[in-house]
Amino acid sequence: MRSGICLVGKRFAKSNKPLLPNTYDSSKPISDILALHVVILYGYAMSKPFPYGEFYWLTADEVQRFNSDNIFPDSDIGYVLEVVLEIPSSQHERQNDWPMAPEHLAITYEMLSSHSKQLCTKFNLTNTLTGKKTNTQLFFFPKKELHNLSKPKILSRTQVNIEQNS
Question: What superkingdom does the record give (predicted)?
Answer without folding.
Answer: Eukaryota
